[in-house]
Amino acid sequence: MLVAEILKSKGGAVHALGPKASVAEAAGELQSRRVGALMVCDGDACVGVLSERDIVRAVAKDGAAALARPVADYMTRQVIFADPGESVDQLLGRMTDRRIRHLPVLRDGALMGVVSIGDLVKARIDEAAREAESLKSYIAAG
User: Which partner for 58 in 4, 6, 66, 139 could form a disulfide, CB atoms 3.0-4.6 Å apart?
Assistant: First the structure.
């Protein structure tokens, strides 16, 4: 299964904010949108990712003062992107190796969606279930 197929079923909504938004604003967005990470965009460019983990680390390091600081101070700047033509297995390997949970998907330099490790695991489980059902049908047909 390809990333493009996952985005087709889940949609291409990208939850983003600007680099000058406060960490408190970001935490509110994460909570209200029920997501684990936000893309940090400066115009059309994705310049970072801010995850729940980043916020926890910020507060652990700088205390409550971190909440008033801009997300640019704590975001992950080395953004790793996915291509819509990549397979679920390729991305699962990359995410596991890099210990990341969210990948923005770029097509021709434009942000077209975000996939999480949960999206990829769900797709892999669904694929395995379809394969098992197909094998059962084949065996039953004898």
Answer: 66
